[in-house]
C-alpha cells in the first residue's frame, strides 16, 4: 500500500526527520579512533528514548534478517554496507563507517544514512565511494517531485553510480515510508525513465544509494544480518527521507 500523508502528518515527519539527522550527526562526531560500535548503539538508544521516540530497528524481524535486529542503529565498517549489526569492534584510523538510523516519533517514521571516514587518513577509494553515493542521492532528490515517475528517480540515482564506474546492485533500495519504516513503492537504485508510479504530494520516500568498490555481489555475515561486499572491498551508503510537496520535495532528515 502506498501511504499519502496529510499536512499534519508531514509536519510530524519533519520532527522525526530532524531528530534522525541530529542523532546521526551526533554519532558521527563521536565516531573517532577508539570508539566501539556498541558505544554508538548505546548512545543512539539513549538519544532515541530520551527524545520520547521509538526505534524502528530493535524488534524488527524481516525475512532478510535473522530474528529481531536487537540494536538501535546500523553500523557498517568498510566491507559492511547494509544492515550492519553493531558488535564489539573498536574503530581504527581510516575505517569507512556507514551509520543508518530509522525511528518513529509521533507515529511517523524517518530513515537516513551517512558514510564517512574515521580519523585522519582518508583513503582516496573511500572518499570516491562516499562521494558517489552522496551525488547519487542528491540527483535522486533533484529528480523527485509531484508527477515524476519512480523510474525517473531510479534512473537519476543509477546514472550517477554507473557514471562513477560502479556496478549497481538492485536487491536492496529505497522505499516509501510513513506510519511504518518500509512501505511501497520500492525505489530501485537503477531504472528507466518514465516507468512506474507517479509521485504525489504527501508521499514520503527514503532514497538510499549504496555502492561497493569492485563488485555488485553481497554476502551475509555470520551474524545473520550484516550485508557485506563479496570481495571484501569497501562500500558506502547515503540516505535521506524526503517528502513530495505541491511544487517539489523537502528533505526531512537534515539536522536543524
Ligand atoms: N534503515 C534500513 C533501510 O534503509 C533498514 C535497516 S533494517 C535493520 O531501509 F533492521 F537492519 F536495521
Ligand atoms: Co531505508
Structural features, described:
This protein has 256 residues and is an alpha+beta fold. The protein has a single domain, classed as Alpha-Beta Complex (Creatine Amidinohydrolase), CATH 3.90.230.10. It is 28% helix and 24% strand. The protein has 4 helices and 14 strands. The strands form 4 sheets. It has a 5-stranded antiparallel sheet with strand order 7-6-8-13-14. Strands 1, 2, 4 and 5 form a 4-stranded antiparallel sheet that branches. A 3-stranded antiparallel sheet has the order 3-11-10, with no helix packed on it. The longest helix is centred in the N-terminal third of the chain and has 24 residues. The protein is globular. It starts with 6 loop residues before the first helix and ends in a 5-residue tail after the last strand. Bound molecules: 2-amino-4-trifluoromethylsulfanyl-butyric acid and cobalt (II) ion. The site of cobalt (II) ion has 5 residues, from loops.
List keywords for this structure.
256 residues; four-stranded antiparallel β-sheet; binds 2-amino-4-trifluoromethylsulfanyl-butyric acid; 4 helices; Creatine Amidinohydrolase; binds cobalt (II) ion; alpha+beta
Amino acid at each position: 500500500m502506498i501511504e499519502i500523508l496529510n499536512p499534519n502528518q508531514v509536519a510530524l515527519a519533519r520532527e522525526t526527520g530532524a531528530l534522525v539527522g541530529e542523532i546521526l550527526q551526533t554519532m558521527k562526531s563521536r565516531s573517532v579512533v577508539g570508539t566501539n560500535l556498541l558505544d554508538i548503539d548505546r548512545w543512539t538508544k539513549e538519544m532515541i528514548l530520551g527524545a520520547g521516540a521509538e526505534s524502528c530497528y530493535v524488534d524488527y524481524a524481516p525475512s532478510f534478517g535473522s530474528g529481531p535486529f536487537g540494536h538501535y542503529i546500523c553500523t557498517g565498517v568498510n566491507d559492511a554496507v547494509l544492515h550492519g549489526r553493531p558488535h564489539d569492534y573498536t574503530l581504527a584510523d581510516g575505517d569507512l563507517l556507514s551509520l543508518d538510523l530509522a525511528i518513529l516519533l509521533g507515529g511517523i517514521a524517518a530513515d537516513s544514512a551517512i558514510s564517512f571516514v574515521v580519523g585522519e587518513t582518508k583513503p582516496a577509494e573511500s572518499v570516491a565511494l562516499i562521494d558517489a553515493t552522496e551525488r547519487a542521492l542528491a540527483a535522486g532528490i533533484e529528480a523527485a517531485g509531484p508527477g515524476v515517475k519512480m523510474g525517473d528517480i531510479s534512473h537519476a540515482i543509477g546514472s550517477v553510480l554507473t557514471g562513477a564506474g560502479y556496478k549497481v546492485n538492485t536487491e536492496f533500495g529505497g522505499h516509501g515510508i510513513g506510519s511504518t519504516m518500509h512501505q511501497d513503492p520500492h525505489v530501485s537504485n537503477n531504472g528507466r525513465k518514465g516507468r512506474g508510479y507517479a509521485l504525489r504530494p504527501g508521499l514520503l520516500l527514503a532514497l538510499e544509494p549504496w555502492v561497493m568498490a569492485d563488485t555488485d555481489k553481497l554476502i551475509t555475515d555470520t551474524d545473520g544480518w550484516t550485508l557485506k561486499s563479496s570481495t571484501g572491498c569497501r562500500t558506502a551508503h547515503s540516505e535521506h527521507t524526503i517528502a513530495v510537496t505541491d511544487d517539489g520535495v523537502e528533505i526531512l532528515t537534515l539536522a536543524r
